[in-house]
Design brief:
Helix content is about 30%, strand content about 20%. The protein is α/β, with parallel strands linked by helices and about 290 residues long. The mean pLDDT is about 95.
């Protein structure tokens, strides 16, 4: 099922998106993971027939605009981008389906805009990575050096799409079919082959991390129903902070399914059941 391609004009940037099932009862904004794009939901979205689902290319990703020169990609800056995208769609209330980075962003959107977010469906993500404040000076120094060297870097060029797909599979976390979907949306033709559309600055070290107490404070502010699906072969649930984060989200429905970090993309058949049941329970006549 081919999605509709959208361009959303926001006050900040022009964002690209893909949309499935226009006019379906439940509005769902889907947010992908780091260095992925809207195609992260290409195998799952056609199965969520009750959802008017819009999958964003986050700023700097996929076909969306990059941030202006000299501007970094701080985690918290994606929060107003998401709310601006919902505004461009005319959505006052909506659910969020987020994977990895997108799940972390979704948690923060729900925490600060409880009147807008009707539910959180999270896949392999529960808040952002955290760090020790003692390490922040070194992080900021490294990020600043990377930004200063930005203009000196030559973009990597692949001779063909297949080579880029192979490289994405080797990077890990996703199977070949899913990798191909992500890569085909992520590439752009260049003189000698194909290069990534994504902003190289996304690969820079995060200049500042929130500490774990700050992350927990946001998670504790989530008031909407929330479901978290994690892969049995993935690493998220093994992290030392994971149990406390789950406790922080009131009434969190956590389920472990077979698969790895991209379980929603690699094996959507096992994900669609729990997700559909959860999302159908969010019926909101005012959405």
């Amino acid at each position: 099922m081919a999605p509709e391609e959208l361009t959303l004009e926001t006050a900040y940037l022009r964002l690209a998106a893909q949309r499935w099932h226009v006019g379906a009862p439940l509005k769902v904004l889907a947010l992908h993971g780091w260095l992925d794009n809207a195609a992260s939901f290409a195998t799952l979205a056609p199965r969520l027939t009750g959802c008017d689902l819009v999958a964003l290319d986050l700023p700097g990703h996929g076909r969306s605009e990059h941030r202006p020169p000299g501007v970094h990609y701080h985690f918290v800056d994606f929060v107003p981008d998401v709310l601006a995208a919902a505004g461009a769609l005319g959505w006052a209330r909506f659910a969020i389906l987020g994977h990895s980075l997108g799940a972390g962003i979704g948690c923060f959107v729900a925490a600060i805009a409880p009147g807008a977010v009707t539910g959180l469906a999270l896949v392999e993500g529960l808040g952002p990575l955290s760090g020790s404040p003692d390490d922040d000076p070194d992080r900021l120094a490294e990020a600043t050096r990377q930004m200063a060297a930005h203009a000196l870097r030559e973009p990597r060029v692949y001779p063909d799409v297949e080579t880029a797909v192979t490289a994405r599979v080797r990077a890990g976390g996703v199977g070949k079919t899913g990798a191909r979907l992500l890569v085909e949306r992520a590439l752009q033709p260049t003189g000698g082959g194909f290069a990534w559309r994504s902003d190289p600055r996304l690969r820079y070290r995060s200049p500042i991390y929130l500490d774990e107490a700050q992350v927990l404070a946001f998670l504790a502010r989530i008031r909407c129903p929330a479901q978290l699906l994690t892969g049995a072969d993935a690493e998220l649930a093994a992290r030392p902070e994971f149990a406390a984060r789950c406790r922080a989200v009131r009434g969190l429905d956590h389920r472990v399914l077979p698969g790895g970090h991209h379980l929603h993309l690699d094996d959507p058949g096992q994900v669609v059941g729990p997700l559909t049941s959860f999302l159908e329970g969010l019926a909101d006549p005012d959405a």
